[in-house]
Each structure stands twice: as C-alpha cells, then as structure tokens.
Amino acid sequence: MARASTYYQPKEPEEKASDEDERLMAEIDKIHVGCPAYGARKIARVLKGQGFDATRWHVGRLMAEMNVRPCCPLPSLSAPSKHSRQFPYLLKGKKISFPNQAWSTDITYVQIGGRHMYLTAVIDWYSRYIVSFRLSDTMQAKEVVRCVKDAFRRHGRPSILNSDQGSVFGSDEYVELLKGAHVIQSMDGKSRWRDNVLMERWFRTLKSECLRTTEYSTPKQLERIISDFVSYYNDERIRQSLDYETPASWYFSGINQKAA
After folding, report:
1. pTM higher than 0.85 for the full model?
2. How many CA atoms lie within 13 A of 78 on its CB side?
3. H or E element, residue 60
4. What is the DSSP string of 3-33?
5. Which parts of this chain are annotated as the region Disordered (predicted)?
6. At the topology level of CATH, where does 102-259 sit?
7. Which of 110, 98, 77 is nearest to 211 (CA)?
8. DSSP states along 127-145
9. Which of 15, 49, 69, 182 has the most CB atoms lying inside 10 A of its own CB?
10. What is the pLDDT of residues 72-120, one digit of tens each?
11. What is the domain partition of the chain in residue ranges?
C-alpha cells in the first residue's frame, strides 16, 4: 500500500465549502452594516461569538471578494502643510447682507466602490447658494483653482473667500488666484470647524439626503448625481433660515436688489 494513501484525507466538497462561505458573507454583511468601522479582526471575533469557525484571514479574504472595507478615518483634508501659507479668519461677527459678499469653499471625500474621490464646492454665505462644485480623483491645488475659476466665471467674484487651513488653500497657486482676482482670503481658526459651518452642513446634507440612498459605480454617474442634487438644492429645496424660500430665490433677488 502506498504511503500517500495511508495519510490521505479526502477534502470536503467544494459546494459545501462554498455554502459555508455564503453563510459567512451574509453574516459579514450584517455586521458591517451595523458596525462599518470593524475590520477583519473584529468581525472574526464577532463571528466566533456567534458560533462560526472563522479566522481573521478567512474573513479578510471574504471581505475582499465582497468589496467590503472598514470605514477607517481618512487623512485630514484640513491639515496645513509645512510650507502652506495661512491667513486670519475675517468672518467672525461680520454681518452678511447681500450675495457675493462672502463665499466659503471646502473639500470632502466621497466614497465610490472601494476607493474615494474628492469633491470641492463653493457656497454663498448670504443665500446658501452653491455657486460651483468640482469632482476629481486627486487632491491637488489645480482642481480647487478650477472650481473657484468656474465660480468666478459664472457668478462674479466675492469680496471674501473663506476656507479651512488645508494645504491646497495655502498653496501658491490658490493664493495667487485670489490675489489676482482682488478677493480677500480668509481661513478658519485652528481646529475651528464651526468657522466654515455652512460648507460642512452642505456636505452633510448631500451625503445624508442623496449619496447614501443612491446607487452609483462610476465617476461619471457620481458627477451627474451631484449635479442633479445641486440643482435641486439651489432651485427647489426650501430652507427655514431663508424664510422657507430657496437659495436661488435669495441669491438672484439679492443680486437684482444690489444692482438696482
């Protein structure tokens, strides 16, 4: 008798293993929905507590097949670099009385499949009107500059443009754009997210009311969805802070009053 046949142990049928993986993936999906920050190690612990025999490596392989990734904190977009320039915050206690008196801009992450893109937007402080946005796959100053140039082209120039202290807003390319356009640059105080609260709230509204309930898989689809939401937000969505009117009605009526 051959020695190999003595120690041979038959493998389980692939179908049985596949069924077990299907059950595990269903449980992994439930755990991920409830605890999106859990990685393979923690999910494996939860599965073991439920009676499943699953190692962290097995769970990690299944998560990769499912394209499931933990929602880990991403690098801060508000941190200045060592060489970026900084400016004082100019909007504290300032009365905003008309459109284009002050704008704010910021960048946020937008998840798309297993990766993310960067969304830059510019908002008018007086009316909450979104004057421009730009979606890109890199966080470079040139993308922010293009977004702001588009806002200037379509809506003119504000007196003040505020941002956080992110490195792109302190870059020479961005600083020189505002200086050349005679726009006064303002920056939030350190760790003062409330200084740019209008932009932060709009990003939160976009994600909670639109992106989390809409399916998309390509950058082109995502850009169209954001564009449609910006149109809805500006032209149709009423706001209590605007006496239940839309941002567009406040922005353009204010422009007309100022012109008159």
Report:
1. no
2. 18
3. helix 56-66
4. HHHHH--PPPPHHHHHHHHHHHHHHHHHHHH
5. 1-20
6. Nucleotidyltransferase; domain 5 (3.30.420)
7. 110
8. T--EEEEEEESS--HHHHH
9. 69
10. 555 555 555 566 788 999 998 899 999 999 999 999 989 887 788 999 9
11. 11-66, 102-259
